[in-house]
Amino acid sequence: MTSARSGGGCSDDSFIDFRAGVTSLGREWYERVAAAPDSLAEHPVVAEAVQAHRDEALFCEDFDFDDAEEMRRRLPHLARLCLGPNT
Q1: What's the CA gap between 49 and 35, in Å, rounded?
Q2: What is d(CA 40, CA 34) in angstroms, rounded to the nearest whole number?
Q3: How confident is the model at residue 3 (pLDDT cuts 50, 70, 90)?
Q4: CA distance 75 to 49
Q5: How far apart are CA 56 and CA 53, in angstroms?
Q6: What per-residue confidence (pLDDT) applies to 62?
Q7: Measured CA distances, 15 to 10, 22, 76, 78 (Å)
């Protein structure tokens, strides 16, 4: 299935990735965006992505679970538990 982002729409897969991206912003932002979608424009990640022309910023696909640095960034508590302290 191809993404329709550039065509003015969003494929099912892209929407799922976008939803995961919004969820990854945290509960406060998830609830804020659910109540007022336009508020997403106020999030620093979105502002930075626009300035850098990175339209994929909120389209989170699965990440490499074998990448210790990425695990520590995304799941710091679980990484500390499973991988030990950051050296």
Answers
A1: 22
A2: 9
A3: very low
A4: 22
A5: 9
A6: 75
A7: 6, 10, 26, 27
Tokens for 18?
């976008």
User: What letter represents residue 33's amino acid?
Assistant: V
Q: The tokens of 16 are what?
A: 């799922």
| Amino acid letter, residue 10 | C
For 42, the token pair is: 């106020």
Determine the Cα–Cα distance for residues 60 and 14; give it in Å rounded to an integer: 9
pLDDT on residue 48: 86
Calculate the dihedral angle through the C-alpha atoms of 56, 60, 13, 28, rounding to the nearest 10 degrees. -110
Q: Which one, of 77, 60, 62, lies nearest residue 24 by Cα?
A: 60
Burial track 19-40 (b if 16+ CB lie within 10 A, e otherwise): eebbeebeeebeebbeeeeeeb
Question: Residue 69 is encoded by which pair of tokens?
Answer: 């640095």
